[in-house]
Amino acid sequence: MQTLVIESTQRASNVQEQVGYWVYIPAAANDEALEIVRDLDRRQIEDYYIGKNNYVSLGIYSDKMTAERRRRNIETMGYQPRLNARFRATTVYWLDFVEPEAREVTIEDWQGLMSDFPGVLRQSIACE
């Protein structure tokens, strides 16, 4: 931005970013949860985890299609698994500036500035 002689201010904000999908059988009584995992073991399904309050985690998946396939597979066994989006807190950074009236920042200017930062997006906001 300095090469274009534009003053800017930096700011950061925390956002929730979706990172995947969780398939699980909701929390149940201890006896019921143990019976569920025994049944899964009998069916040679070993990739589960019993969590706090006796929920049965059936995996975390990066794409919804795979998570949905897993949910449907477990559902065919008579269970009612759920699929929830997973999030993590992340920080996004903003560079705010007022575009000078005397010189518009062109698409070519932006492409040159951002060529080393492929994840950067431009968001124009009309000022009143």
CATH architecture annotation name of the domain at 18-87: 2-Layer Sandwich
Spatial gap, N to C terminus: 23 Å
| Share of β-strand residues | 25-35%
Q: How many E-type strands?
A: 4
What best-fitting shape do the alpha-carbon axes yield? elongated
Give the overall average pLDDT. Answer: 86
Strand order of the largest sheet: 2-3-1-4
Biggest sheet character: 4 strands, antiparallel
Helical element count? 3
Low-confidence stretches are none
For this structure, the CATH topology of the domain at 18-87 is: Alpha-Beta Plaits
What percentage of residues falls in helices of 4 or more residues? 25-40%
Oligomer: single chain
Order of helices and strands: EHEEHEH
Structural class: alpha+beta
CATH class of the domain at 18-87: Alpha Beta
* Rg (C-alpha, Å): 24 Å
Outline the fold blueprint.
Elements lengths: L7 E18 L4 H13 L6 E2 L5 E6 L2 H12 L6 E16 L9 H8 L14
Antiparallel strand pairs: 1-3, 1-4, 2-3
Task: Describe the protein.
With 128 residues, this protein is an alpha+beta fold. The chain has a domain of 70 residues: Alpha-Beta Plaits (2-Layer Sandwich), CATH 3.30.70. It starts with 7 loop residues before the first strand and ends in a 14-residue tail after the last helix. The chain is elongated. The longest helix is centred in the first third of the chain and has 13 residues. Helix content is 26%, strand content 33%. The chain is built from three helices and four strands, in the order E-H-E-E-H-E-H. Strand 2 and strand 3 form a beta hairpin. The model has no long low-confidence stretch (mean pLDDT 86). The chain has a four-stranded antiparallel beta sheet with strand order 2-3-1-4.
